[in-house]
Design brief:
Helix content: 10-25%
CATH superfamily of the largest domain: Hotdog Thioesterase
Radius of gyration: 20 Å
Number of helices: 6
Structural class: alpha+beta
Number of domains: 2
Distance between the termini: 49 Å
Strand content: 35-45%
CATH architecture of the largest domain: Roll
Shape: globular
Length: about 350
Amino acid sequence: MLTSFEGLHSRIQQRVGRIPTLEEVDFHEDWGHDKMQFVESMVSSGVLACPAYWQSPDSRVCVGLWHFTGKDLAPADPIQATTLLTLADDVTGELSLRMFNSTAKEIHMGLTASLEIAQTAVLPVARRLYFEAAIVEVLERKVVVECPIWDGETGVHLVTVKSTYAFIPLTSFMQRSKKTRNTSPPPTPHTSAPLPHGLPEDDLQSLDRAMSFLPLGRLEHKAGAVDEQAQSLVLVLDFGVRLSGPPLYVHGGIISTVLANASQLLFARSTGLGARVVASSTRRVRFLRGLPGESKDTVIEARVKSADRSQVVIEARLLRQGVAYTTLTTTYALAPIPSKL
């Protein structure tokens, strides 16, 4: 386990030095270790060194390092959004769980209610990332955590994730999970969006490659279609094993990433512009209900809500058996370009 911040950029070391008291805590100490959990599978696969976390005595601040070993990464490969969003959701969830259960009369389970992601820099070819997660608001059974993330080697701020968690008693969660296990998966995808033009196989493979950082789980984009006139996109995908966050449910960070990838593809297809013209982006994810693990024939629908020379807004949602489970609204702020949009 990493035990120091030596070798990190001086700006990172200065930030750590301004935090008065920190105590090292074990990774997933309160969660218990589960090989089906996505981050646990990254550690057991050797892709990620066991994360090092330090926490304030009042359980309201947590800082730490994610150290990528380089396994399954070429020297020029950037850290993928799959990993970054999932790790942020993971650590903010663990921090909120520790704090909430330290004062609750009975044990609770936290579920991600929403994520807000503000990305300010291109994801780097990095091996060590530094984060600072802090609880910023507590409202009855909801906890809000803010988590900025930096490239530990350059000191560049990459992204800030603001997470909201809803807490329910563990007994109620187990009853809900039992109902989930007894729910049959949908035999066929249900979608209301038009399917006039099939998505090329190259696009589907590109979406799969964007998720190739999943070490033990498999995620397959099986089919898709785009309506360029209506500026909409539909995808059908399967979630594989070992992708859970809470027991029996797909990790919220992975769901956020597949929605973000679909939105990015629609952005490119509908505008003809690449990622280089995006100065910054904000994403707002709402989790309406937990997506059962290994869900098959899951559908993503995305559409361009608005577009002008300064920004493009895309709405996406993930459905199972015709029911919406997660929604994502992405706002792409465009850099000034000489040609017309």
